[in-house]
Amino acid sequence: MVRVVVVDDEPMVCRFLRTILGSAPDIEVVDEAHDGAAGVDAVMRTRPDVVLMDLRMPGVDGLTAIERISGLADPPAVVVLTTFDADQYVLRALRAGAAGFLVKSTPPEDLIGLVRVAAEGHTVLSAAAARRLVAASTDSLSARDRARELVGALSEREVEVLACLGEGLSNAQIAARLYLSEATIKGYVSRMLDKLGCANRTQAGLIAHDAGLVGS
Question: pTM for the complete prediction?
Fold first, then answer.
């Protein structure tokens, strides 16, 4: 079962998401919260696989909650689910540790599949968020310089794996491309995340884009 926590200040939204996700036989909404602080508490209490997080909430907002959750040991995949996708929010959420960014207009049947994808450790982005991300990251000189400095500390093989992460490839796909075992790739990814100071594959993928390892 994919265990999910929903964090949104609108009870109606939480109820809707419970209904949609609960219709899938392999997904269970184990808790809900209506502000960021309660969301962090729910994550610590239930240890879910995926968190669906709104951004604008009273008290502790979604961005702050994402940062706190990313700092936990073995954090879940946090996917932003919001009504707006302005450039600064997409980039800030992903840099804070979010594993994806979706808008609430995402069709229910797509949302179920995307929750499964996030639970497997992959990045999930709405089309609009992906376009904004590419534009925002390529325009940031400071981010590019920082990314290239981080990449400079990696081995040649780690750089190859990082570039694959930037393309959104799974461990199995990277292993096939580089002619290595999936277990070896998993080890490379784990060590690389530590070297880069990244909480998840999504943040590492951002660095790959910023460093110019992945074409736009």
Answer: 0.70
